[in-house]
Amino acid sequence: MSEPATTPADPRLAPSEKPQVAFWRDPEKRGYFFQALLFLVVAFLGYEAIANAVDNLTRQKMASGFGFLNQIAGFDINQTLISYSNTSTYGRAFFVGLFNTFLVAGLGIVLATLIGFSIGVARLSSNWLVAKLAAFYVEIVRNTPLLLQLLFWYFLLINMTPQPRDSVSLGLNTYLNNRGLFLPQPVLGNGFTAVLLTFVAGLIGAWLYRRRAHALQEATGQQSPVGLVSLGLIVGLPLAAFFAAGMPLSFNPPELGRFNIRGGVQVFPEFVALLTGLTIYTAAFIAENVRAGIQAVSKGQTEAAYALGMRPGPTLDLIIIPQAMRVIIPPLTNQYLNLTKNSTLAVAIGYPDLWQVFAGTVLNQTNQAIEVIAISMAVYLFLSITTSLAMNWYNSRKALVER
Amino acid sequence: MKTLMKSVALGVTVAALAAGAASAQTLAQVKARGTLQCGSNTGLAGFGQPDAQGNWTGLDVDFCRAVSAAIFNDPTKVKFVPLSAKDRFPALQSGEIDVLSRNTTWTMSRDAAFEFGPVVYYDGQGFLVRKKMKIGSAMELSGASICVQQGTTTELNIADYFRSKNMKYEIVAFAALDETSKAYDSGRCDAFSADASALYADRLRLANPDDHVVLPEIISKEPLGPMWRQGDSQWGDVIKWTHYAMLTAEELGINQANVDEQLKSTAPDVKRLLGTEGNFGEQIGLTKDWAYRIIKHVGNYGEVFEKNVGQNSRLKIARGVNGLWNKGGLQFAPPVR
Ligand SMILES: N[C@@H](CCC(=O)N[C@@H](CS)C(=O)NCC(=O)O)C(=O)O
Asked: Are strands B222-224 and B121-123 parallel, antiparallel or unpaired?
């Protein structure tokens, strides 16, 4: 890998030996000059365009700064992860929308990945029925517009579920009707934080143990009971702490009111429909990425594994998938970005995501089109860039390390 | 160098675009273009609705036809641009439409950003509920789910109403009217709230209109009128006097059928309105016979009202507050003089 000691002298590497020429004859300096000129021209035009636009907009009273964010919003939002009422500010409404976007996009990414990987693998299954079903799923879902799918899921959901009066009880004080799923509201008692902390400690412990086990296996080939120990640390430890703290958790059950169920935690049908739609749609694309990734791994790898006596399961897990990941991750990033951006279709089915709340209602009430759109675009840009960076980092870790 | 030229061209275009939207001569632009760009509803019976052939009907739509008749002596020189509640203002701001005639409530903050014309329909917000819920009053809606369309005054009024009455409710807000009313029809909401006129219109689209009633309470004032961009008072005059011409015609008993005969009238106010005396239309950049054209092609206010939302329509809305001022209503036109 290291450079050979005797590199033949490269003329470009030794500037002092270059013939002396006037700077306008020197292609490199001339290049810089034109780059700088171009930059200045573009900067000037950019400045002029923006200044002109701002000028026009202020004259049309279309842009007047971000002061409106402190004004009272005056409208209500049904699903709010932070406290919000119609006397809160537009700024707070922004955060309500933002968190709702996080919620649906975050969960959507996790679920779409799980389903997408399963379907992708299923498409390559040697079982004819499984492979065909997976192919059918992918083709149907990929070839119909997402908006129609969302409307389909939403209206299916609210038409299939019973009216509030006929709410079905699912046991454990949980009810289902066309207003959503109603769960008992957890009420955290004293000492619950301690339980949470042991859980976090358990997670860290399990991770450390796994690393050690890996190192041990690399060095000596000896295997450790990683699964069992992790289970004990992540589940057992907090459970023990929970009982030790005197079970500091109770539930407020929902109850039937005149129109609907009151109290408890409400999982809105708009949310479920959007999450389902986004997940199922994106999973189909992820499945195709996974299939392509697996097929990119040469058959010889499987044959070699079989020849060594490995069974199909471990072959897939230990040989194929790790190699396929290099091919899968970059397009996977695209799918994550798509899912996040597609979540703006929430407006169609009344889910209060950032786009619905902020670029919809807030823009309309305040008429601050430029500011609102600029903020919204910045948010989606930020989300996309962070996702990309995270995935690039993951990719660089998973990239084939040749030994 | 090629890239440089491209960037320059791009920059110039951007700057030009940014400058474009500001100019104010809407009337001249409309005349030069030969058509009026009219922002209308995506589909609200009685106010603005296209049929399967793309023929538009409605009170708001006829208003644009009247403007077109006044300018071009032809009510068909209108291009209707369907807009949802939340898309309508950006469309007006950006210059995509010349006038917004789409059941839009005149409010102070909207007036601060745009100009409003005379109120062509006085409305108020109401609630539509299922009969079988046996609700007699909006006061009984505590705890209800309510479907509304976002980007409307409805969304705000409802928050006020429930706050002031100290009642709880769950709002479900959709971008489009279609989904709003479908969600209500599917039982997602106990009530559907909108301008009362819209409720009567929308009730007809539900699976079983007779299973639903509009509650008696009207919880807000919704003066609906046309809207245009600020800084163009000439265009504002055209919009205003289109409506006033239709009102004055009704007041003077001039209608589509008798307008030609009325040209022979000797009554001074009839002569001034129809342009057989004076040049009032010319003073606002139109022709003397601007009102004649409107009445001839579109009709007077009463005719347009009855045809679209009144007794000759499916909505059967009574004139009520929308009657002429001298018949106990609020519709009042300044004199043509
Ligand atoms: N007058 C109110 C409401 C106007 C409005 O958009 N109403 C709804 C009635 S439900 C509508 O016409 N929707 C039809 C559409 O979005 O195309 C306002 O100006 O905010």
From this structure: antiparallel
